[in-house]
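Report of the visiting student (M.T.), summer placement. My assignment was to run the structure pipeline on a short list of targets and document each run. The first record concerns Transposase.
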Amino acid sequence: MGAERLYNRAVKSTCIKVLKVRVKDRHAPLLRSMATEVNQVWNYCNDLSDRMIRERGRWMSGFDFSAYTAGASKQFEHIGSSTIQEIAEHYASKRFSAKRRKLRWRKSFGDKRSLGWVPFKARAAHWKHGQVFFAGSHFKVWDSFGLANYKFRAGCFTEDARGRWYFCICVSVDRTCPKGQDSIGIDLGLKTVATCSDGTVLEGRWYRHLEGKLAKAQRARRKRRTRAIHAKIRNRRADALHKFSRHLVNRCGEIYVGDVSSSKLTKTTMAKSVLDASWASFKTMLDYKSQQAGIVYREINEAYTTRACSECGGLCGPQGIRALSVRDWQCVECGVQHDRDVNAARNILRLGAGHCAP
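After the run finished, the structure tokens were exported:
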């Protein structure tokens, strides 16, 4: 009896989640001043690293930069030692990943300036009097998550292309493993971004409704209006992907997605639709939300999933680029009528669940 209760009890653990809220526009001048000082530290680390490699053949780590940046906070008006250390560690990590002696300089002014970025370590920012307190200043934000209920870890302030600032913070949240949920397979596409094995569909091409207004603004060279329209398209896409991925994670215990690559398709006439479909973002959302929920998420090789019949496994479906217009077909071996995308999603589910491959 005790073992049965233990089995039925939800398993609880913690995971890291990133919360992003918008900062009030009146704080933008102060944040831009902070970002200018951040860029100076970044460029100093960039120059120091390049000289150390050329003159001594030594690749500096984030810890090595601490000796050269000690006391640098006295030279700046806004940022402190925790931000300077975080910049150095982030720079060392990025340079190591890129395998380059020098990264790009961060520009604070001009048309091609770098977007603002102000990182900080854990405990450098905290919630105080209904605002974010950081570096001796209070920042008012649109609190849509209830930040007072979380313990802040490391994070940063970031700026988008429209000059709006956001507060991004890592927090610990409880993870509950659900039980008694279904499995589902997902086939990714262009017109329909995602088609599930149960027939659920996420329609795509969010740019279509604003395509005319975007072209008009671009021809008139209205840069601010163009950025605003791009932001609206991006927000609509992100909203739809977040809602759909959350719906799948809440009702499914196993999620299998076709491993489709967009690297080759971005160089074709379908590049606009491929980029708008945002397959990578959708899979990333499913990945981290599945980890937080404690469910299974895997990417499956989707070879022959479109051609194979999900009932009998016969390879009699449409093939080739010319057959992309064929959305419904009938299996010549078993006579079952198939929707092209739903059939592929069912085959992906069978492969992911470990059943017989098509």
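The chain has two domains: 17-174, 178-358. Residues 17-174 form one domain. I thank the supervising group for their guidance throughout the placement.
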